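The instructor's notes for this session suggest beginning with a concrete chain rather than abstract definitions. Hand out the sequence below and ask the class to guess, before any prediction is shown, which regions might be ordered.
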Amino acid sequence: MATSPRSDFDLKTVPLCETDLHQLEALFDEQCEEWLSLLGWDYSGPSRLIREVARARELPGFSIVSGGVAIGFAYYAIDGGRCSIGDVYISQPWRGLGADREVMAAVLDQIDRLGRVHRIESQCVSVHNESADSLFQSRGFSRLERHYMALQLDSTPSPQVHPLDYRSELTTRSWRSDDFSQAARIIHRSYKGEHDSLINSQYRTEEGCADLLTILTDHIWCGNFLPQASRVAVGPRGSLAAVLISTRIAPRSGHVAQISVHPAHQNRGIGRRLLNESLSELRRLGYASASLAVTASNAAAHHLYESCGFGTVHSFPVFYRESG
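After discussion, reveal the predicted structure:
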């Protein structure tokens, strides 16, 4: 936004349903530009859906205002007793002044007043929200770090696809629509007891994993689904052992949105095989880059991605708090 911060700035929070829509639109535009520049992600599709809810005055959350001008926002969604922080974004000139803490405090206070939420998760890709970070921790949230990693496909040679471990009777192929149910089960089993199931409670149940898979394959929140670049590993009797989901996040940018290997088949090179095959297909389709996100504490996955040429371009914290 064009407005510059003043040394005598004042901050106040305003419900999103009462915030000037033109000012919100300017913030959404700035966020889309930053996502494209920083992450290589065209966020205009999901942003359009969020704007529609905001225009209908139905987006729960707050803006942060200084001198009558909205300089940031935060919103959330509640599903039963679970609340997801959808986003917290502060205009670039206003970062480092505590605006992120103020707007997030207003959101958390409102959620706590509802009295029916037993779990709050924040998985959004935040940018320079250090004050909000400290607020979450002061409010009893657990914190984990996530890394957004990228690979330039047009400047990195395609890796040789090695045969699978001799103990494996698996074959690999592209995604088919009838893989959905088995894939949801694979995702559920692969995350059992892992840190990601702490961050996102949907990983704890097969039903929740099916909901996540629906988002990846039928919606645009994580990009447009690319079945031809998505892969599965299949056993001799047709049962799935691993799944990789790829999406398109910009005209020449692919994204590995999900990769899961059944625990019985891990440490046999299956994840690497699926990843290399997906990257090769993305190259063939003319994509210039690929990206993914990984929890920093998942050392094995982090090592795999680095060995395939991915490098971290952005790090961000995620939080969760559960009661009762």
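Then share the key points. The radius of gyration is 21 Å. Residues 21-39 form the longest helix (19 residues).
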